[in-house]
Amino acid sequence: MTESEKTFFIQQKLDELYPAPPIPLAHQDSYTLLVAVLLSAQCTDVRVNQVTPQLFALAHTPQDMAQVAVEEIQQIIRPCGLSPRKAKAIHELSQIIVDQHEGKVPQTFEDLEALPGVGHKTASVVMSQAYGVPAFPVDTHIHRLAQRWGLSEGKNVVQTERDLKRLFPENSWNKLHLQIIYFGREYCPARGHIAAVCPICSVVASSSI
Known about the structure:
By secondary structure, this protein is an all-alpha fold. The protein is 59% helix and 0% strand. It is built from twelve helices and no strands. α2 runs antiparallel to α8 and α9 crosses α10. It starts with a helix and ends in a 5-residue tail after the last helix. 37% of the residues are buried.
């Protein structure tokens, strides 16, 4: 199977299984999405979605969040883990958005990644899902599957992102990264995975690009 045949098959199968994948993190706008993605670091989307209703009931705009004490934010988000660091980042980035961006979440990678607690992956999710800018956020699911499928030998998510962007058309990135996440959770877990019955691994995992 050639590289182009492999990527075509993967994209076709994902389109068949997940024609319209929803964003797994509950949110109302770019700001609540930003906060939810920040909270999802080393935490499941399910847990984040359990925590954010209480947080956003307290404050759902950067203006309001900047007025909330870090300790109060921390108390609410404690189930998400890393709560001291995340609470401080949420409070600080909210103040920066108010002071430097007229209360609106920045729409460039550079400005987003300059915010406390916001790395490239978080910025990529916001740019792709809130603003429709082509991006390919790579999380642990995508990193794992890209290696299983022989699409990347990257030792880190930066290299994996570069490889996937090269292989797949730009206009598919925003949808594709969600499709791969859902596929990884449903069919291609880290543990207990049986390649022979996996709808994609059974076809491509043993193939060399």
